[in-house]
TrEMBL record:
Domain CRAL-TRIO: from-to ranges: 99-265
Pfam families membership: CRAL_TRIO
Name of the protein described by the UniProt record: Alpha-tocopherol transfer protein-like
GO cellular component: membrane
Molecular function terms, GO-annotated: phosphatidylinositol bisphosphate binding
PANTHER family, sorted: ALPHA-TOCOPHEROL TRANSFER PROTEIN-RELATED, CRAL-TRIO DOMAIN-CONTAINING PROTEIN-RELATED
Matching Gene3D superfamilies: Alpha-tocopherol transfer, CRAL-TRIO lipid binding domain, N-terminal domain of phosphatidylinositol transfer protein sec14p
Name of encoding gene: TTPAL_5
Organism (species): Bactrocera latifrons (Malaysian fruit fly)
Record-linked SUPFAM superfamilies: CRAL/TRIO domain, CRAL/TRIO N-terminal domain
Amino acid sequence: MNPISDDAAPILRPLAPTLEKIACEELNEVPNRVADDVLALRQWIHKQPHLCARTNDQFLVGFLRGSKNSLEKAKQKIDRYYTLKAALPEVFNERRQVDDPLVMEIVRLGIILQIPLPADYHGPCITIIRACWYDTTKYKFADIIRVGSMFGEIMTIEDDNSTVSGYIEIMDMSNVSGQHFLQLKPDLLRKFSTFAEEAMPMRQRGTHFINVPTAFEKGFRTLSTFFPEKMLSRISVNSNPEALFEFVPREHLPQEYGGENGTIADIVERMEAKLLRYRDYFLLESEFGTNEKLREGALYNYENIFGLEGSFRKLEVD
């Protein structure tokens, strides 16, 4: 379902001056051309028989910025975004809904913490993932990724910092057990991290594992090799809890992490309210995707997406 007509003039949220400067210098953005490119991308989507994609303006401009404002690469990225979702049924399935009790349970556990930042902050968005703060007999790590993907999608629509300055993830591995470690399936990590790198309209600026017990540190370094090659230089593994302050200024952190930015309970309350506002958005999710039978030209399938070695083909966007 694409309710926005082909020729409707895009209505875009203006960037803050600092972000606009970053977009121009780092993403090749030409402010007076952005609306035309969004319109062209929308028109292109409507002409693709195999692709049914969201076409609201703020959603599309994220893909342009995530492709350094190359219209052709934005087309590839949005096609890949919907195509690769089908290759990750562990994450993108019928349980990716606000009304699913499991989703709200995970939110209330405070496993995923999107850090609130001041209005004049224009750096990368910051998410802390307390990756081992859940009962492995009740939840799977794929469930955690599913909920995280919902907040990531909301972030690309709401937060211009995410599509211009990017985002960083802090993976807090305190409380890790052997059962948690066994749930970190290399294939799932590789597939989802490559989806995030190649198809999501955000720049991944770093993934930092902290509080990694010494006994597990070697294992986590081995796991990190399953991430896409481009991401390896942005990954760090550290047992020292103070390592967090190398990536996130202390004043932005909640009190439980040594900061002054409210509490984890405050963050969870805001995130729950935000997710509830997007209930209808996710209810429409099943209406979007690809129909490979209608694709013109070469078909996508599991083999040619992952290749012989299990890696997605690369979409070169520096």
